[in-house]
Specification:
The protein is an alpha/beta fold and 322 residues long. The protein has 14 helices and ten strands. The chain has a five-stranded mixed sheet with strand order 2-1-3-10-4, sandwiched between helices. Strands 7-6-8-5-9 form a five-stranded mixed sheet, with helices on both faces. The N terminus is likely disordered. InterPro entries: Solute-binding_3/MltF_N.
Length: 322
């Protein structure tokens, strides 16, 4: 083989090797979320390679309860978490950790479910209600719905900590002494099918509410701004794909596979999610202000202005680049 031919062969081999390697090293992220329909944009981003094409390798963990989610973020075990926005507020106000909400999601789609023998919310007087944590998010929704019906916490009913939504629906079905809890899809659909009684949607009683939101430690966000923007770009693209009617059937299959449920339940949950999602995962400021108002009412402690808890600069860059 001539010298020139050897050089050409070597160059071709190097080009082939270079072409088969990723242009940049993957950035690994560990995130934590609660099980539920709200994760559809994440399921899409994983299955369609939306994270991968941006150089991200995302490992998604399921939260057993909000304490583990918040503690894991504070400890650096998770870089990004998705949960009710009030959890981020709780990190700031209770744990004195500087967390920032960087993206919205949905209104929670929460409904108050009770045991079949409960005829009205007032029948919960003297009963025990189940919550994830007693001092955050959907527990405040529950307390507010009961307050509007004339029932006061501690005086009129008892609160029992059970854990995440999937645990609470199991608890109510197994233990009839637990009389009520807040549930969202698909768990609300399972509850209704199993005979628990639906007492109405939270937002119909308490007004707009910013539920699902993504948040990070402020310092980690500043140090990894490009990664946050890439992550949000993939998340928003996943949400847009999921919301496209042309993708509905495939989206339902993704939900059924990831949440291990029948397709009819996944289909019903999909419709509820589409009704409860904010376009492009935008943060609903009126809903977030209501989150803060509920926290103040049910803790007796004032919060900071809404702007102190959020940093939408990453979201704005993600939207601008799409």
């Amino acid at each position: 083989m001539s010298h020139l031919r050897k050089l050409a062969t070597a160059a071709a081999t190097l080009a082939l090797v270079a072409g088969s390697s990723p242009a940049t090293a993957e950035t690994k992220l560990t995130i934590m979320v609660f099980a539920g329909m709200q994760n559809l944009p994440l399921f899409v981003a994983q299955s369609k390679g939306l994270f991968a094409k941006r150089g991200l390798a995302v490992d998604m963990k399921i939260a057993p309860n909000s304490d583990e989610l918040r503690n894991g973020l504070a400890d650096g075990r998770f870089q990004i978490v998705h949960a009710a926005a009030d959890n981020s507020v709780a990190m700031v106000e209770m744990a004195k950790v500087d967390a920032k909400i960087v993206v919205g999601g949905d209104n929670g789609m929460n409904r108050l479910f009770v045991q079949p023998d409960i005829g009205a919310i007032t029948d919960l007087r003297g009963k025990t209600v189940a919550v994830d944590a007693p001092n955050t998010a959907y527990a405040f929704q529950l307390y507010e719905m009961l307050r509007l019906a004339g029932l006061e916490r501690e005086k009129d009913y008892t609160v029992q900590v059970v854990g995440a939504t999937m645990r609470r629906v199991d608890a109510l079905l197994a233990d009839k002494t637990l009389s009520a809890t807040m549930l969202n899809p698909p768990f609300s659909l399972r509850a209704a099918k199993a005979g628990l009684k639906d007492m109405g949607e939270a937002t119909a009683s308490i007004g707009p509410y910013q539920a699902s939101a993504g948040f990070v430690l402020a310092s980690w966000g500043r140090d990894n701004a490009e990664t946050v923007v890439k992550y949000l770009s993939a998340y928003i693209e996943g949400m847009r794909w999921a919301a496209d009617p042309a993708n509905k059937a495939e989206a339902i299959r993704l939900v059924a596979e990831n949440l291990k449920m029948p397709e009819d339940i996944a289909a019903a949950g999909y419709d509820l999610l589409m009704a409860g999602m904010n376009k492009d995962a935008a943060l609903d400021m009126k809903g977030f202000e209501n989150v803060l108002a509920l926290r103040t009412r049910h803790t007796g402690k004032p919060t900071r202005p809404a702007a102190d808890y959020i940093d939408l600069s990453y979201y704005q860059k993600a939207i601008a680049g799409m």
